[in-house]
From TrEMBL:
UniProt name for this protein: Cytochrome P450
Domain of life: Bacteria
UniProt family annotation: Belongs to the cytochrome P450 family.
Pfam annotation, one family: p450
One annotated GO molecular function: heme binding
PROSITE patterns reported for this sequence: CYTOCHROME_P450
Entry keyword set: Heme, Iron, Metal-binding, Monooxygenase, Oxidoreductase
Segments forming a coiled coil: none
Length: 61
């Protein structure tokens, strides 16, 4: 996840990061058995230098 750099830096970037951190913490706390359903080496990322991420994240619990 990216929010740009320099003059084009997103003003809401910090808020989005805090919200994401909180959402992940709550999810992991509510689903303590949550784990990756595939080996880490099988995860594939997409994107370039500024925007990249996982098109899917298989999980199991």
């Amino acid at each position: 996840m990216t929010f740009g750099l320099g003059i084009h830096y997103c003003l809401g970037a910090r808020l989005a990061r805090v919200e994401l951190e909180l959402a992940l913490a709550v999810t992991l706390r509510r689903l303590p058995g949550l784990r990756l359903a595939v080996p880490v080496g099988e995860l594939r990322s997409e994107g370039g230098h500024l925007i990249r991420g996982l098109p899917e994240l298989p999980v199991a619990w």
